[in-house]
Design brief:
With about 325 residues, this protein is α/β, with parallel strands linked by helices. It has helices at about 15-20, 60-75, 100-110, 145-160, 175-185, 205-210, 230-245, 255-265, 275-290, 295-310, 320-325; strands spanning about 30-40, 45-50, 55-60, 80-85, 115-120, 135, 140, 165, 195-200, 245-250, 270-275, 310-315. The longest helix is centred in the middle third of the chain and has 17 residues, at about 145-160.
């Protein structure tokens, strides 16, 4: 005879309505941030698909506006901009040029959608001729001299109307330098979403093709975090929070869900997770080969971020997910 006093979890799975009633985590449009690559070009019709990221593009200002318009209609609340300048130099001057590509894109988007949250990636790698995230001398990335350039970049982006400044460089002390510069220029209400825990990951390959920002020598392991380290992540997050960060980001996302949970459990501040280009490319490749159900896998992966403790998710799938949610 079968005992009748065992746990019956299936009672709460009997129908879709029942499962939805007791569901613990869900992804909404409020959780998602779309990422766009905008290029400084005179060709208004420029729209180039990124080979390693099917469905993602380098966009002219006009094409960016068209893409954002469709996404806003589907419920887009926030986006992040990455700029590709017309020319590069040793100091990445295009990053802090008031007429730079991020600045122009921000002004254009905010003029049309004042309530849309425009986040600006604050870094130099896309603008430097050597491809590193800071000033270089004798093939060494200089930390402290870079801080002034990052601060200038942040102020220029805020002046253009950016709602959130997002430093991704991983220089020590950059959050403090940026916070001080923003405050000095009257941008005390502009928050900083720090790439607080950013690993030197193999999952960034497609992004470097998309942003045309691969380093011309060496790698970024002297300033991005070593992937095996977790305790270090807590030190980095604590430092950025103390320096004035308002949101802490973990990047990459899926391989570092344990780190997302550590940050969530240790810091009472909004936590963001970045589903990076390599994660996107793998899901896309498997889906294009018919090996997985793309929509189901994407939604499951995003719920995983929420379950790990992420309040915000940066994902290249955002546009597609908004259509599903709508």
């Amino acid at each position: 005879m079968i005992p009748m006093d065992f746990y019956r979890g299936r009672r709460l799975r009997t129908s879709a309505a029942m499962r939805e009633l007791v569901r613990e985590h869900a992804v909404t449009a409020n959780d998602l941030i779309m990422l766009y690559f905008v290029i400084d070009t005179e060709d208004e019709n420029f729209k180039k698909e990124i080979p390693s990221m099917p469905g993602q593009y380098q966009l002219s200002l006009k094409q960016l506006e068209l893409k954002v318009a469709e996404a806003v209609d589907n419920g887009l609340k926030a986006l992040m901009l990455f700029g590709i300048p017309a020319s590069k130099d040793e100091l990445g001057s295009g990053a802090y040029d008031d007429d730079g590509i991020i600045q122009k894109a921000t002004r254009r988007l905010k003029a049309r959608w004042p309530e849309l949250i425009v986040m600006a990636d604050t870094c130099l790698c896309e603008y430097t001729s050597h491809g590193h995230c800071g000033m270089v001398q004798n093939q060494c990335v200089l930390n402290d001299p870079t801080l002034n350039l990052l601060a200038r970049t942040a102020v220029s982006q805020a002046r253009a109307g950016a709602d959130v400044i997002a430093p991704s460089d991983m220089m020590d002390g950059r959050v403090a330098a940026i916070r001080q510069a923003l405050d000095d220029e009257g941008f005390t209400d502009v928050p900083i979403m720090s790439y607080a825990v950013k690993y030197a990951s193999a999952f960034y390959g497609p992004f470097r093709q998309a942003a045309e920002g691969a380093p011309k020598f060496g790698d970024r392991k002297t300033y991005q975090m070593d992937p095996p380290n977790a305790r270090e992540a807590m030190r980095e997050a604590a430092a950025d929070l103390e320096e004035g960060a308002d949101i802490l980001m973990v990047k990459p996302g899926q391989p570092y869900l344990d780190i997302v949970r550590l940050v969530r459990d240790n810091f009472d501040t909004p936590v963001a997770a970045y589903q990076v280009s390599g994660e996107y490319a793998m899901i896309k490749a498997a889906a294009l080969n018919g090996w997985i159900d793309e929509q189901a896998v994407v939604m499951e992966s995003l719920v995983g971020f929420k379950r790990a403790g992420a309040d915000l998710i940066l994902s290249y799938f955002t546009e597609d997910v908004l259509k599903v949610l709508k």
